[in-house]
Q: What sequence folds into this?
């Protein structure tokens, strides 16, 4: 029976009860114990008792009861209920294992440990290292039948198990495992070519020294942006892989069989012709903005170059990039109120300028040169990107900078990763081999646009979201103030490296929520503490390259502006308990129509707070990069006299092992003190929610949106999960 004395289905684990004439009336002189274990029989009309035996069993198809251990051998770890006897049975089925006992060690941290006695006895307790052959074998055997959270962290071999005088196992005398036996080597090493390739890529992109074949990519800190980088790097190695493959198979062991030796062929756009290209949805949104200086709306980076760059190789690298990525040949034409996009035929000229600056006025001259480049674009003609290689004239103390600027119409955050990765690959191939070879091109923009979901099916749902957002405007300190690009200031917030690792790696292991979901919950709680609203309206910017409509589009190496921008109303507020707030945000994000791709930017204005989570940026260029981020100012990316389209623009990313939050605002609308208080509350909420997720009472974080096939009544899922616990 279950906890409510209902029969459990065949094959499910339950508590064993006895009934009938042989059941006693209770314990002698122990009323409390009698009340706990001798209960009224719900299946009898005469009120006879049933006896709770304390045994955990399940009914097999052949009618026999399978004993799985005692109820007091059930533990809870990271929100999961675990039957220790179920693990012990599998271990005992292995050759050479005579006895097996599982225990939850509480200190120095909670760890599930297996204690084993083999036929060939040892003289003293030995903790097997993670890479020991015995460990690999047992982990593999357990993984065939059990979920990851039921696989022990440690295996300790004993000469014999400690016993009580009555012959039962003395669990209190089981020794703690030797934590020094933990090594950085993976518990299950990659064997096949596909496994070794994936392990190498994961280690590089996630910035970790080793990876286990059964480690979950997302529990290690992976996110949807890193998925795209993984796919691109797999393709570079000559294999094909889709984002859907990785999301459905987040471990190397399960993902490796999905690698195909030959990359999928796609239609490619000819580079010697002028081609009309439809605008992407986000480009159409841009052209509807009331801008007076539309040509000056850029994204730029300034890099240091530790070693001198060969200028001829640099120019050839840019020529190959321009040919490989059609968006680098884009221009735009205006016909009345309508804008069109054209990819120009490839030509050998590239937007590269090599500049020597005097050492004594380096920073001033650098700012002037980069500002000229920022203001140089013309949407109608010429390149919409510019590369400056700047160096000083001092041979004894050389300074070198590489400045790269794009008009935002042809670039986004994922495209930057693609551009910089290809840049380094081409330059090194030219330097070392004299020629460059890139992976096959991915889906062209015209093909991708035809696969986008239409808005008709989801129009009513988007309308409801817009209505909810309109009811929760942001307060303003200075209602008559202006909001120009040149007036914007940035409040920078940061978590410590330790707090960042907790957010990226520990929280997803314990509570089923991704870092962005926790950040949005924290933001909603912090802002509603200020506004007094029952939720937060925001515009969410995401990369827009997710799989949809069973599309076969591959955008892992496509440079373009593809981000999706859409309204979201988060029903989490400061008065909600952490669990309820986290689950409400998680459900909201998981049930957005078409993950935001079907939103049509019409007459309704988006909320004035924009949030964009850019993920991890530390390992984009690799450890031996040709260049690294520089700190000098590099001009204004937007024209200072244009209106900002939002009140608050919040960008979160992981840089130098720290979560950095850049909160852009106008001091003409809000006092700096207001922003400082909001920032303090935001960080405080992040820490509070992270601590909650790691706590014993957090649960696993399941929500109804994770079971789309089920039609749960309100509260039914929580009740079911309580029963399972």
A:
């Amino acid at each position: 029976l279950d906890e409510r004395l209902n029969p459990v289905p065949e094959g499910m684990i339950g508590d064993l009860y006895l009934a009938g004439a042989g059941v006693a009336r209770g314990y002698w002189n122990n009323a409390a114990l009698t009340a706990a274990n001798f209960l009224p029989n719900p299946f009898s009309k005469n009120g006879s008792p049933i006896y709770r035996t304390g045994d955990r069993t399940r009914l097999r198809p052949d009618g026999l009861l399978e004993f799985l251990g005692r109820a007091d051998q059930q533990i809870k770890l990271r929100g999961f209920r675990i039957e220790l006897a179920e693990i012990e049975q599998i271990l005992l089925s292995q050759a050479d294992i005579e006895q097996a006992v599982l225990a939850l060690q509480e200190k120095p941290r909670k760890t599930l440990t297996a204690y084993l006695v083999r036929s060939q006895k040892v003289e003293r307790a030995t903790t097997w290292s993670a890479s020991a052959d015995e460990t690999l074998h047992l982990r593999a055997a357990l993984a065939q039948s059990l979920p990851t959270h039921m696989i022990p962290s440690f295996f300790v071999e004993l000469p014999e198990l400690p016993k009580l005088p009555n012959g039962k196992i003395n669990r209190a005398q089981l020794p703690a495992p030797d934590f020094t036996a933990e090594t950085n080597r993976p518990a299950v090493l990659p064997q096949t070519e596909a496994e070794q390739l994936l392990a190498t890529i994961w280690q590089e992109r996630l910035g970790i020294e080793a990876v286990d074949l059964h480690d979950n990519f997302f529990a290690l800190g992976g996110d949807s942006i890193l998925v795209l980088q993984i796919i691109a790097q797999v393709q570079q190695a000559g294999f094909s892989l889709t984002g859907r493959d990785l999301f459905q198979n987040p471990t190397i062991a399960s993902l490796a069989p999905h690698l195909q030796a030959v990359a999928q062929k796609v239609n490619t756009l000819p580079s010697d012709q002028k081609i009309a290209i439809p605008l992407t949805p986000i480009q159409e949104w841009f052209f509807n903005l009331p801008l007076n200086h539309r040509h000056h709306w850029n994204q730029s980076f300034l890099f240091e170059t530790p070693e001198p760059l060969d200028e001829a190789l640099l120019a050839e690298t840019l020529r190959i990039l321009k040919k490989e990525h059609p968006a680098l040949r884009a221009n735009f034409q205006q016909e009345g109120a309508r804008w069109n996009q054209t990819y120009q035929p490839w030509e050998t000229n590239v937007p590269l300028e090599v500049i020597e600056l005097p050492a004594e006025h380096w920073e001033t001259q650098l700012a002037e040169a980069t500002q000229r480049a920022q203001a140089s674009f013309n949407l109608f003609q010429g390149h919409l990107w510019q590369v400056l290689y700047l160096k000083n004239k001092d041979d004894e103390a050389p300074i070198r900078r590489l400045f790269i600027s794009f008009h935002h119409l042809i670039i986004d955050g994922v495209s930057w990763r693609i551009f910089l990765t290809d840049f380094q690959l081409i330059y090194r191939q030219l330097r070392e081999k004299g020629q460059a070879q890139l992976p096959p091109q991915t889906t062209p923009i015209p093909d991708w646009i035809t696969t986008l979901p239409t808005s008709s099916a989801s129009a009513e749902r988007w309308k409801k979201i817009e209505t909810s957002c309109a009811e929760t405007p942001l307060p303003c300190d200075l209602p008559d103030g202006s909001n120009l690009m040149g007036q914007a200031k940035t409040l920078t917030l940061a978590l410590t490296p330790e707090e960042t690792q907790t957010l990226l790696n520990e929280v997803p292991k314990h509570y089923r929520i991704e870092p962005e979901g926790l950040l949005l919950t924290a933001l909603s709680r912090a802002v509603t503490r200020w506004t007094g609203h029952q939720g937060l309206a925001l515009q969410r910017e995401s990369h827009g390259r997710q799989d949809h409509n069973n599309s076969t589009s591959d955008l892992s190496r496509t440079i373009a502006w593809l981000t999706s921008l859409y309204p979201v109303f988060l029903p989490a507020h400061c008065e909600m308990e952490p669990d309820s707030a986290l689950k409400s945000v998680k459900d909201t994000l998981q049930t957005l129509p078409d993950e935001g791709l079907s939103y049509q930017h019409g007459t309704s204005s988006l909320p004035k707070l924009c949030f964009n989570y850019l993920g991890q940026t530390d390992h984009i260029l690799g450890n031996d990069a040709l260049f690294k981020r520089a700190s000098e100012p590099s001009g204004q990316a937007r024209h200072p006299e244009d209106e900002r389209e939002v009140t608050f623009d919040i960008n979160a990313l992981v840089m130098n092992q720290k979560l950095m939050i850049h909160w852009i605002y106008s001091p003409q609308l809000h006092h700096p003190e207001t922003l400082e208080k909001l920032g303090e509350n935001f960080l405080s909420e992040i820490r509070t929610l992270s601590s909650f997720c790691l706590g014993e009472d957090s649960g696993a974080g399941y929500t109804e949106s994770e079971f789309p096939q089920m039609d749960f009544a309100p509260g039914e899922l929580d009740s079911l999960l309580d029963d399972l616990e």
